[in-house]
Amino acid sequence: MGIPLVLGRPIAEGDTVGGSKVVVVNGQFVRQFLGAGNPIGRRFGLAESEDTEIVGVVGDAKYFDLRQEAPATIYVPWLQNLDLNGAMHFEVRTAGNPMELASAVRRVAQDMDRNLALYDVRSQEEQINQTLFQERLFARLTSFFGALAALLACVG
């Protein structure tokens, strides 16, 4: 996703069920919950008070609304399966049309776990278009009414 790593390390393949519980947090999480000081190595309770260590800090990213500041975010290695409830988001990179791979990705997910449901599959371009829809509509309407006002001013 291109989110810059600010401190520490990213989630790695070695972060599995047998290893120590680790997370990567964003800058907003650090500011909101930890305050000053180096967050790397700090521990906190997550999912039934497990001892979880912060191993990395990434930059803030806005996922749903560009007008609001980025929420405090925790990135959990899926291989550690901390039994957190909620949706999992993942990215598949491709050189071609990403939607052409949707059925193949669904098959791979079903092969991994029959109970795994993939829904709301979309390309990053579609996600960006959906996120920016209101802003673009407002800009178009403002331009239209501005042009209409200029036309009326010219006509008198």
Please provide a brief summary of the model.
With 156 residues, the chain is α+β, with helices and mostly antiparallel strands. The chain has helices at 27-34, 102-112, 124-155, and strands at 5-8, 22-26, 43-46, 50-58, 74-75. The radius of gyration is 21 Å and the shape is flat.
Main attributes?
3 helices, alpha+beta, 5-stranded mixed β-sheet, single chain, about 160 residues, 5 strands
Question: Can you characterise this structure?
Answer:
- This protein is 33% helix and 15% strand.
- By secondary structure, the chain is of the alpha+beta class.
- It folds into 3 domains: 1-84, no CATH class; 87-121, no CATH class; 122-156.
- Strands 1, 2, 3, 4 and 5 form a 5-stranded mixed β-sheet that branches.
- A hairpin with a 3-residue loop joins strand 3 and strand 4.
Task: Summarize the SSE layout with pairings.
Blueprint: E1 5-8, E2 22-26, H1 27-34, E3 43-46, E4 50-58, E5 74-75, H2 102-112, H3 124-155
Parallel strand pairs: 2-4
Antiparallel strand pairs: 1-4, 2-5, 3-4
Strand portion, in percent?
Answer: 15-25%
Stretches with pLDDT under 50, minimum 5 residues: none
The percent of residues in helical segments reads: 25-40%
The count of domains is 3
What structural category characterises the helix and strand content?
A: alpha+beta
